[in-house]
Design goal:
alpha/beta; Udp-n-acetylmuramoylalanyl-d-glutamate--2,6- Diaminopimelate Ligase, Chain: A, domain 1; Protein-Tyrosine Phosphatase, Chain A; six-stranded mixed β-sheet; about 20% strand
């Protein structure tokens, strides 16, 4: 973050400054909205959410060493929380945070890259950052910081030394991306893929398309857009694209054309303009992310050899189709979230997983699909039936719809488990897991499928401990 004084802070946010505190020479260089991660010297912004109110934690913030606080003008009783911290009162602390973020971004000469889409945006953001970091210094949105709070906190990470920033934008209703991108002012925009997601907020896939296209408007006529060639053919997107647009994909007409694509033994290989690249990833659905990162790197003059070196360093993020070895089991940890497109990609990945005996998909509900939930869950069941699975384990309100689709598509009902209780799910899963089976674990965030993964970790650890005890006992008996 670029440093600023409390006087500047008050001016930027149209705030009342508590002059009782001695803050004339104090400089703000970092901001926190959570006392659990607050570091000494942070400015604490008291945000009010559905479950917590930051104003209830002002004393704790000061005790932990906050240099000052930003509070609501309607909480004047909270403004003086100790003689060691300055207090700034604003109409809306969230708006103040956003104003500060926009100011911080405007101070930075770094190249701003905005990434959005229905699926693949986090992986693409991470891939871009990995590739560019080989030559340039920059930041990316931390974790899942892609909303009205997360994007400002991401922008506040930019400092004078940064040469680029990759900022992820998420949305669940129209207009959100326009706001997020407005604070960021990206020079390069990235659309990953668009499909049914957050339909309870958007209402239709058509509205999703219009909302994601808000990024194109923010990039503007002088910016540069990257997107899959199929997306560029959608009329609502095509008419808004700037003159400088680079398409990626395997179809003829792609500006960055992937040829000779193969996926064998966990290695994705492809060639672009005669240069061969490879990544160690769990599935071929990482291709588009790699092509976008490659395209941006080439725009910035990074040679192919250095791009490949960065690909060698790339690791999928936890919960984002990360392949984990748990004892004898190979597990695709894709717990973080789920939509029709991302689950289809996960099923493709488990179908191509090598070195396993049986393949098991453990799927939780895809939430946020509104009135089309039944349709998409039945369609998911049909896809699962055609995905080379040995067993299908389903959990949630729409599990019966998935089973209905799978059986209609020809899957044997005796190999399908339907559950609304995770403990019962674990019992049948334990019966079906072979020594060297492969598992896909996926579901929407609120389904908390990471609990299944944690249970598998515990089982693998106990099995390993049991084997170790048995081997120790055998050595003891032989010695005796």
């Amino acid at each position: 973050m670029f440093p600023l004084t409390f006087t500047q802070l008050a001016r930027l946010t149209d705030a009342e400054l508590n002059t009782q505190a001695r803050c004339d020479s104090a400089t703000i260089s970092s901001i926190s909205t959570d006392t659990r991660s607050l570091r000494r010297g942070d400015l604490f912004v008291a945000l009010k959410g559905t479950q917590f109110d930051g104003h209830d934690f002002l004393d704790e913030a000061v005790a932990r060493g906050a240099i000052g606080t930003v509070v609501s003008v309607n909480n004047k009783s909270c403004q003086t929380v100790g003689d060691q911290a300055a207090s700034v009162a604003v109409d809306d602390p969230l708006q103040a945070l956003q104003q500060l973020a926009q100011w911080n971004a405007s101070q930075s000469d770094s190249l701003k890259i905005g990434v959005t889409g229905s699926v693949g945006k986090t992986t693409t953001r991470h891939m871009i950052h990995t590739v560019l970091s080989g030559q340039y210094r920059g930041i990316q949105s931390p974790g899942n910081y892609n909303n009205q709070i997360g994007v400002p906190l991401s922008l506040l990470c930019l400092s004078e030394e940064d040469e680029f920033g990759v900022i992820e934008f998420g949305a669940s209703s129209p207009g959100e991306i326009s706001n997020l991108a407005g604070w960021t002012e990206p020079e390069i925009g990235v659309l990953t893929n668009i499909g049914p997601a957050h339909l309870d907020g958007f209402g239709s896939v058509e509205t999703v398309i219009q909302s994601k296209a808000e990024l194109i408007d923010a990039v503007g006529a002088n910016g540069l857009m990257f997107l899959p060639v199929e997306m560029a053919c959608i009329p609502e997107i095509k008419r808004r694209l700037p003159a400088r647009t680079i398409t990626i994909g395997q179809a003829d007409g792609s500006d960055i054309l992937a040829e000779d694509v193969s996926f064998r033994q966990g290695v994705l290989q492809f060639s672009v303009a005669g240069e061969v690249y490879h990544l160690t990833v769990p599935g071929r659905h990482f291709l588009n992310s790699a092509l976008i990162a490659l395209g941006i790197a080439r725009e910035l003059g990074i040679p192919g050899r250095q791009i490949q070196q960065a690909f060698n360093q790339f690791k999928p993020l936890s919960g984002r189709c990360q392949l984990r070895q748990l004892g004898n089991w190979r597990v695709l940890d894709d717990c973080y979230n789920a939509s029709p497109l991302s689950v289809a990609a996960g099923l493709d990945a488990i179908a191509e997983l090598d070195g396993v005996s049986d393949r098991i998909a453990v799927l939780g509900d895809m939430l946020g699909l509104g009135k089309l939930s039944t349709y998409y869950h039945r369609k998911l069941g049909m896809q699962a039936a055609k995905s080379n699975l040995d067993f299908l384990v389903i959990y949630g309100e729409f599990a019966h719809d998935v089973a209905h689709g799978a059986i209609r598509a020809g899957m044997n009902g005796s190999r399908i488990g339907v559950f609304d209780d995770l403990d019962l799910l674990k019992e049948i899963l334990e019966l079906w897991m072979e020594q060297k089976c492969g598992l896909l674990i996926k579901g929407s965030r609120n389904m908390h499928m990471e609990r299944v993964f944690a249970w598998l970790e515990e089982r693998a650890h106990s099995q390993g401990q049991a084997r170790q005890d048995a081997e120790s006992n055998l050595i003891y008996r032989r010695a005796g």
